[in-house]
Amino acid sequence: MSTLSDPAGGTGGGVPGDAPRSAAEQARSRTFGPLYSHNARAVIARGLMATRSSNWLVMVSGFFEPVLFLISMGVGLGGLVGDVQGPDGTTISYAAYIAPALLAVSAMNGAVYDSTWNVFFKMNFAKLYQGMLYTSLGPLDVALGEIFLALLRGMLYATGFTAVMGVMGLITTAWAVLMIPASVLIAFGFASLGMGITSFLKTFQQMDWINFILLPMFLFSATFYPLSVYPQPIQWFIQAMPLWHGVELLRQISVGSFTVATPVHVGYYLVMTAAGMLLTTLRLRSLFLK
């Protein structure tokens, strides 16, 4: 007896003339049930089309913020500060010291703004996710698609900023090329968690808390000066923040100096990514698949 394939990748399990299964039955028969239909590429394609038609200028403008900081702080203030001690103990210019940190900030900002304000509008005003989940797409498809778009933005920023570092003579080791995938890992952690947190926010006033949290991380995550300048209790608090791990990871890669702390920084973002993906998927399912 022949079987009939269905759009969800399963089989109809009946002979010609049998009533076709409903979308709900097809979703339950998938490996991940109604959570995942293996079609995140549809969400990605829609996002790329929207970016090309209306949002490309916003994406490009986000690249210049860390570059301007690097020029003003690294070159301007760096002329007053002089050389500083790098992660491996060698002396480097102040611009070379803050450049990896600004790259981490760039990856964070690109991922966060794409996965918070962008998602907030689509969820609460455009009602885009509701429409997506009325189709065969599952919450995990939507989460993966949106987070991939945020990662793409973070990767573009990281690649462009690394090129600027090369032009300014701030790259001294071949290990520095690893800053690009490391920046994507940082973006992945912030994007996945950011989208999950945004699902709880309902007003613009609540969204202001995102900037309220990002600004202290930017200023106090050893971005412009070493962690040792703070009292010990404040150091512990800073070391618990995600951006500090990104700053330290990229700073180590930039000079090719790896320690036992390097896998800790990587592991921090892997856990952060897994927790964010789980939170986002469960929240989308709770909100739109009741």
List the helices and strands and how they pair.
Blueprint: H1 23-29, H2 40-81, E1 83-85, E2 91-93, H3 94-115, H4 117-124, H5 128-133, H6 139-167, H7 179-198, H8 204-220, H9 232-240, H10 242-255, H11 261-288
Antiparallel strand pairs: 1-2
Helix pairs in contact: 2-3, 2-6, 3-4, 3-6, 3-7, 3-10, 6-7, 6-11, 7-10, 7-11, 10-11
3D structure, described in words:
This protein is an all-alpha fold and about 290 residues long. The protein has two domains: about 1-30, no CATH class; about 35-290, no CATH class. About 70% of the residues lie in helices and about 0% in strands. It is built from eleven helices and two strands. A hairpin with a 5-residue loop joins β1 (about 85) and β2 (about 90-95). Residues about 1-15 and about 25-30 have low confidence and may be disordered.
TL;DR of this structure?
Helix 2 (40-81) runs antiparallel to helix 3 (94-115), helix 6 packs antiparallel against helix 11 and helix 7 packs parallel to helix 11. The protein is built from 11 helices and 2 strands, in the order H-H-E-E-H-H-H-H-H-H-H-H-H.
Q: How many strands in all? A: 2
- SSE order, one letter for each helix or strand: HHEEHHHHHHHHH
Work out the radius of gyration: 22 Å
**Arrangement of strands in the largest sheet:** 1-2
Assign the structural class, choosing from mainly alpha, mainly beta, alpha/beta, alpha+beta, or little secondary structure.
mainly alpha
Contiguous helical run count: 11
Described by strand count, sense and barrel closure, the largest sheet is: 2 strands, antiparallel
- Molecular shape: elongated
Model regions low in confidence, pLDDT < 50 over at least 5 residues: 1-15, 27-32
What count of structural domains? 2
**Percentage of residues assigned to helices:** 55-70%
Mean of residue pLDDT values: 81
What is the terminal-to-terminal distance? Answer: 37 Å
Residues in β-strands, percent: under 5%
